[in-house]
Amino acid sequence: MCDACGCGDSNVVPVALSERVLAANDRGARHNREHFHDHGVIAVNLMGGPGAGKTAILEASAQALAALGEAEKVGVLAGDLATDHDAARVRAAGILAESITTGSACHLDAEMVHRGLHRLAWRSLDFLFIENVGNLVCPAVYDLGQDANVVALSVTEGEDKPLKYPTMFQKADLVLLTKTDLLPQLPDIDVARIATNLSHVMPKPAMITMSVRTGEGIDQWIQWLHGLKHLRASMRASIVGPV
Q1: What distance, in Å, lies between the first and last C-alpha atoms of the chain?
Q2: Mean pLDDT, 10 residues at a time, the chain of 243 residues
């Protein structure tokens, strides 16, 4: 629980104050979104519980994009309560990255992202990944100005997480089911059941099974990102019209 905003819990923070906090955040998110759209940057909010593999996904993405000659077009803002370990890992993988240290806040908000942008050369990027704080509750509530929400869910977390934390998955455009290389050691985990549970809560269910150890799903993930880029380009072209 975040002691700064209460994360929507009216027993912690009065409802009126919580609504004002979220309204202010939404204004900041619109401001961020305008910046991203003006510079043609695709912003992806990468969420998931602690240990779901978010940073490992970014490391694998760096390697895959480097192979395509696109690594220099990717940046990361990594949120963490107390360290810059995740940002350091991503930089070591060859991607521009800065850390956002949240202190006691269990999520990123639009203002934190805006401040982080001042420390990152983001305007020339194709993709900006916002690695949110490890949490399956609070990050889902806060718009950051992103184009897409991606949730990392590891097979070790169990099949019921989409049903137990529906808001997170309701807002997801894509779920990356991570650590699938561990499935032989998890005989009670049924990937089909996870997909079924996601279908109960996601408006448009979409899941890629992934293992950064074996490379499973990495190509599909990169293709999905390129699909976002092409969709944005098509939308911009339809707005601008023929030259």
Answers
A1: 51
A2: 53 61 93 96 97 97 91 92 93 94 92 97 95 95 97 97 97 98 97 98 97 98 93 69 51
Residue closest to 75 by CA, chosen among 60, 58, 53:
58
Q: Which two tokens stand for residue 65?
A: 């994009």
Tell me whether residue 243 is in a domain.
Answer: no
Nearest residue to 170 (alpha-carbon basis) of 137, 215, 217: 137
Host domain of residue 120: 24-229
Does residue 152 contact residue 48 with C-beta atoms inside 8 Å?
yes
Size of the chain, expressed as the number of residues it contains: 243
Helix axis angle for 85-92 and 54-67, nearest 10°, is: 20
Burial of 57 (0-12, 13-18, 19+ CB in 10 A): buried
Residue 187 lies in a domain: yes
CATH value at residue 33: 3.40.50.300
Contact present, 127 and 150 (Cβ < 8 Å): no
How many CB atoms are located within 10 Å of the residue 144 CB? Answer: 27
**Residue among 115, 77, 119 nearest 99 (CA):** 77
Into how many domains does the chain fold?
A: 1
Give the SS3 label for residue 174: strand
Q: Which helix (H) or strand (E) holds 186?
A: none
